[in-house]
């Protein structure tokens, strides 16, 4: 599998997981998860 094929596959997987959410809405979920992970790693 080439890098281009892998990137295409991961893009399709992200689209399936994202569903109908807008990119700006999805970004809010990602930032919340990153914030939560940072807090858990710190404590």
User: Which regions contain 5 or more consecutive residues with pLDDT less than 50?
Assistant: none
Number of domains: 1
Please state the overall shape, judged from the principal axes of the Cα atoms: flat
Helix content: over 70%
How many helices does DSSP assign? 2
Radius of gyration (Å):
14 Å
Nearest-integer average pLDDT:
85
Compressed to H and E, one letter per element, the order equals HH
Q: Termini separation (Å)?
A: 40 Å
Quick one: how many beta strands? Answer: 0
Structural class: mainly alpha
Q: Tell me the major beta sheet.
A: none
Percent strand equals under 5%
Task: List the topology elements.
Elements lengths: L2 H16 L4 H20 L1
How does this model look, in words?
By secondary structure, the chain is mostly helical. It has one domain. It is 84% helix and 0% strand. The chain has two helices and no strands. The relative contact order is 0.09.
Summarize the structure.
With 43 residues, the chain is an all-alpha fold.
């Amino acid at each position: 599998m080439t890098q281009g094929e892998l990137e295409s596959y991961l893009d399709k997987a992200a689209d399936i997981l994202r569903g109908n959410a807008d990119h700006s809405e999805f970004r809010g979920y990602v930032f919340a998860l990153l914030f939560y992970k940072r807090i858990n790693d710190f404590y």
